[in-house]
Amino acid sequence: MxxxxxxxxxIKINLESTEREECxxxxxxxxxxxxxxxxxxxxxxxLELREEKVSTxxxxxxxxxxxxxxxxxxxxxxxxxxxxxxxxxSADVLSKENPKVNIIFEILFEENDTQGHLQVLCDxxxxxxxxxxxxKMIKAETPAQVFDVIASFEK
Length: 155
Prior knowledge:
Largest sheet: 5 strands, mixed
């Protein structure tokens, strides 16, 4: 359950970023605030390298950039919400249009917990599969409201 891993402090409403790479860095600062031993350069490089392989904007309005980070000893998640949307490359190679995403789950995984990685990704998939979840997340005005939306959909 995502609500067992995050707190409202891991959530940033009204992201300032307008570009994907800026967004990665902005959400990385949220993670760094909780995990000061994190190697920012390693983390940002890992996120960008993962994104180059295939876009993490695999759901309408949602992206889930994620990577393994050796300088972490447990999974770290930050969530960003933007009303304007940030353009990501399409995960669909046949698509001519790049989607704009409004909800970004940025995840850094510790190196040796494959089962934990899969569980977090499955938990997010369950959440974003519900169209009501996405609309309520975008409408949320505070980090506490975003957290409450997540917790209510996990019940």
